[in-house]
Amino acid sequence: MKAATIANWESKIRPFVSRLPPKNVIARYSAGRLDFLDKLKHEVPSESYAPPEGYSRVLWGIKFRSPIMNSAGMFKNGECYEMVAGQGAGGYIGGTDTGIPRRGNEKDGVYLPFVPYSRSHSASNWLGLPNEGDEVNSERARVLRRADGCPVGWSVMGSPDLQGREKLQRLVKSMRSYESAGVDFLEMNESCPNTENGRPQDNDLANRLRFVKENFLDHRMRRLPVVVKFSVDAQPQQVPPLMDLLFELGFDGVNFGNTSTQYAKRREAIHPSERRLFDFYTVDQRFGVGGGVSGRPLKEDSLALAGAAVKYLRAGAPQQEFHVIRTGGIESLGDIEDSTRAGVSLNQWYTGYFEQFAQHGHDVYAELFADAKSI
Hints:
The protein is of the alpha/beta class.
């Protein structure tokens, strides 16, 4: 059975499955998600789709055929490039990957805990960066057969299994491996709520970014843009100092943002019928892994933060070409148009992508742009 058929049927029964005891729901969806992704990575659309030319963007000298692509975390080990390129994605990003391979999180017999909230157009995950490591995945990046207008990026992060200078040195080594592999851009993940030491508000942030500047940015072998990704939980007053830091150190862009750990705030956007499941997953002492909340509840904050970053950029742009990316709550052409009006250069989606895939299969981007006008 095709992945699109599975996704479509699952979307129809999801409201009923969600009525089961919360632990059962989480166990079923965590296992089902892995089976679905394993099937998906072997599929390629029978016909390729290209978005309207008016949506193409050229950033850092790189052509993106539209301003929408997957977010990091969707294809951790370099899967599905040919699939999303055929679907019509404006780009592709692998990872987030780490220098040391990671199995990921497990709780009470549930491996890689994940749960969707269908009525809320949201989900929670506590995956813990499962990946096969940068040494393996940089070689996968090297051999990807590129489609025109669908550049390849990679998300990297300092391995939580290391500490201090060793952690930073291994991160830089990984960035060099992807540079050598020919990726078009890198995204440095400074906001992973599912591992320790991943928050952008850490006091050591400036030191980490400065180490990357001195040991990688200043020694790049080619014009390889490096974007830094921060949490959607960042506060508006943090945007100017974060931007100043990135300007000063020579980074090429910023992405707001990753999943959220502000459970009380996000709970307000969860449908009342799904709050028991949400609470059990995030804070209940019987399970309560926490994890990151994704999807529609992040829409307003991701737009506000990305818009504030654009406004600050326009008030005093750095010497280097610099772009703002938005992640969180993207699910329609209207969201992309909102981003464009705010001056955002690119959008990344995850939960919204899979919801649309369940409805339209490999026509997901064709349907997204069905009523498009050049913007």
